[in-house]
């Protein structure tokens, strides 16, 4: 496992990931489209594997899934960095574009594909899930860290 690091646009918030992502997905829900003006590539990680330095601001709303989602961003530059869902507090979503080396990951599925605009370029080699996928099971290695 390679430790991954990242930061916001201005560098006021930084983070480290101490475990491999449980999933890497391109999300086409309407909220992610508003955040990214396109689909958003997200890492699903164990909350215990994420270390954050710096101050975050938050915005909370009910998502299309019905879950209460809290999105976290840098209050200085506005870069959206993380999210967490009331339904799965053991996980965190990390926006892949904020990684120092975003090419170190590769998406494995398109989610909320039914919400993608007709011009969206969905990689046909990735698994396609029309709405919210079933959450992944943590690996045995991540179970040992808790």
UniProtKB/TrEMBL annotation:
- Which molecular function terms from Gene Ontology are attached? carbon-sulfur lyase activity; metal ion binding
Coiled-coil residues are: none
| SUPFAM superfamilies per record | Mss4-like
Answer whether the UniProt record assigns the keyword Metal-binding to this protein.
yes
Q: Which Pfam families match?
A: GFA
Q: Which family, according to the similarity comment?
A: Belongs to the Gfa family.
- Give the protein name, as stated in the record: Glutathione-dependent formaldehyde-activating GFA
- Which organism does this sequence originate in? Candidatus Propionivibrio aalborgensis
């Amino acid at each position: 496992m390679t430790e991954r690091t990242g930061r916001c646009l201005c560098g006021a918030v930084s983070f480290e990931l101490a475990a491999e992502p449980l999933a890497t997905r391109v999300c086409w829900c309407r909220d992610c489209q508003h955040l990214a003006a396109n689909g958003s590539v997200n890492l699903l990680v164990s909350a215990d594997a994420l270390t954050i330095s710096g101050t975050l601001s938050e915005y909370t709303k009910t998502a299309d899934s019905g879950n209460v989602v809290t999105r976290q961003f840098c209050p200085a530059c506005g870069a959206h960095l993380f999210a967490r869902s009331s339904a799965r507090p053991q996980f965190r979503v990390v926006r892949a574009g904020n990684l120092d080396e975003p090419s170190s990951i590769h998406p494995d599925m398109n989610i909320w594909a039914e919400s993608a605009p007709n011009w969206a370029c969905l990689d046909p080699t990735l698994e396609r899930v029309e709405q919210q996928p079933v959450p992944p099971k943590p690996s045995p290695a991540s179970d040992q860290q808790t």
